[in-house]
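Dock thymidine-5'-phosphate; give full complex structure.
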Amino acid sequence: MLKGEQLYEGKAKKVFKTDDPELLIVSYKDDATAFNGLKKGTIAGKGVINNRMSNLLMQMLEKKGVPTHFVQELDDRDTVVKRVTIVPLEVIVRNIAAGSFSKRYGVEEGVVFDTPTIEFSYKNDALGDPLLNTYHALALKLATPAEIDTIKALSFKINEALKAFWAECGVTLVDFKLEFGRLFDGTVVLADEISPDTCRLWDSATGEKLDKDRFRRDLGGVEDAYEQVMSRLLSHI
Ligand code: TMP
């Protein structure tokens, strides 16, 4: 697979063209940002872990009937994915109160919900990814009603699969962010990544944070947390 011209550089990944117009190569970086790019740093080895982890989790989800952009892992940091146009929504599923949910509603972190919640943000860095509801998304023509229904159904299905998988690894899936894309034929598939950058993962026994919150909140042991959660995953895949 030919790695062609760079199309885009994001905060955590670069995207390259290939010789096939329907395929791209994503390349995972060690760069880390938080608070809409205000905080910047490096997490050594993160790109390698996120590439591998996201690919393994997406393959697991495919087996359970969730369509994803994953095609083939090329090496430590590079993966071939189907070319999509990203639906400009950040979809957040939560099982336990944490982060912006706790802050916004004054709920202590760690409160377990009776049923999972879902929320959407408008994926727009200039506006700071503002929270919106599905009516706003329709008004802004970010997605069609049918796409929103598909995205919601897939997101809850993904939550059930990931929650069960992480539980087997002794890890509690607190919340996570997903992005979806449209293939050339309009099919909606899971895109972007699933990794400690995009999920809150707590040690089920101790409650220790094993995700990017260690970087966001200056808790230290960032690299160790990523390695720990990866080795837990590898022992159960
Ligand atoms: P939040 O509590 O800050 O809204 O984050 C919810 C989840 O979404 C958490 O698992 C981290 C993830 N997330 C991202 O992947 N990218 C982002 O830009 C933000 C703000 C959160």
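Observed: The chain has two domains: 6-82, 85-220+229-236.
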